[in-house]
Design brief:
Structural class: mainly alpha
Strand content: under 5%
Oligomer: single chain
Helix content: over 70%
């Protein structure tokens, strides 16, 4: 029983450190989560773009060398679809737990 308390104490200490360091202000977790969803969803369809490739494409417009254009377009199209759905949901007051 003592080890469970130690685990929860350690979790609380790490959470406190995370909050003190204001990491939530440095890392855009919502964007990171969305880009991860996009990269993994398109991977199911055959895309070989990594999460980093996806981030560079969507943030900087940089394509991954040596990878087919279709994979880049697939990721961009899925991002556009998520943005469209999110905007529609906001206008209709639909709650989406993954996005603010």
């Amino acid at each position: 029983m003592e080890s469970k308390r130690d685990i929860w104490t350690a979790i609380q200490e790490e959470t406190d450190l995370y909050n003190r360091l204001n990491i939530h202000e440095v890392v855009d977790h919502d964007k990171f989560y969305l880009y991860s969803i996009i990269a993994h969803s398109t991977a199911l369809e055959g895309s070989t773009l990594t999460e980093l490739d996806t981030q560079l494409l969507l943030d900087e417009g940089i394509t991954a060398g040596g990878k087919p254009l279709i994979y880049h377009l697939m990721n961009k199209d899925l991002k556009d679809a998520y943005d469209f759905a999110l905007e529609k949901a906001k206008k209709q007051n639909i709650y989406l737990p993954c996005f603010p």
